[in-house]
Amino acid sequence: IVSREVHPADSVVQVRGQAFGGQAIQIIAGPAAVETAEQMAQCAELVKAGACRLLRGGAFKPRTSPYAFPGIGVAGLEQLRQESRRHGLPMVSELLDVRMLETFLELDVDMIEIGARNMQNVGLLKEVGRINKPVILKRGPAATLTEWLMAAEHIAAGGNHNIIFCERGVRSFEPSYRNMLDLSSIPVLKRETHLPVIVDPSHAGGKAWMVPSLAKAAIAAGADGLMLDIHPDPANAWCDGEQALNPQAFRQLLDELAPLAAAL
Ligand code: PEP
């Protein structure tokens, strides 16, 4: 279903009126983790002022350590929702556990993220395949492109064809960045599938100073959009502060991306 052989034309995935895979480069931005109502409100103001059209926020965090901050849960989804509806920015959040799907549907999360660690969680993929919400499917940290495409096929086989791939880098031998952004996956996926492909340069680089270069490279390589971590005060973030753009860096990146996006 996800193959271009079956569906030669590009598919456009609509997320509450925002199109992925069309002419525009879509930028999703927001905090890695929702912390407080104030922090979420500040992030939403920045996203809105920056002309980004979708708001992200992690409520359930898949941390490496069981003792690290795990997200504030349902309260985080509610705060994200409040800012989403206040500003007219569709909301995106990660579904970690199939038992929370009903809650995501009740709170009307506009786009469900399946994170890298769950890319091959077939039970979860099947469940989001049965609903009609758009799904962002992140690439597993060590997944081949065929495995990634087949994970999407699990979702599509259930009837939900509203899938957006998100490249976020893969595990490599190099310790100076978090993951190695695989830019080559963009042209390969654009060739193999009709579905949109976006890039998360924040989780790839893992360092805020790297994000602008990776973001620009992703757009130049043909990505349909970006997902960016931002924070009003990255040094005091509860999760992934090192990779979050501060307000000034975020505004500057958006300024730098505008002519690039327009030129494509
Ligand atoms: C995230 O987007 O918050 C996240 C945890 O990303 P990934 O699944 O790519 O690590």
Automatic annotation (TrEMBL):
<dbReference type="GO" id="GO:0009073">
    <property type="term" value="P:aromatic amino acid family biosynthetic process"/>
</dbReference>
<keyword id="KW-0808">Transferase</keyword>
<protein>
    <submittedName>
        <fullName>3-deoxy-D-arabinoheptulosonate-7-phosphate synthase</fullName>
    </submittedName>
</protein>
<dbReference type="GO" id="GO:0016832">
    <property type="term" value="F:aldehyde-lyase activity"/>
</dbReference>
<dbReference type="GO" id="GO:0016740">
    <property type="term" value="F:transferase activity"/>
</dbReference>
<feature type="domain" description="DAHP synthetase I/KDSA">
    <location>
        <begin position="22"/>
        <end position="254"/>
    </location>
</feature>
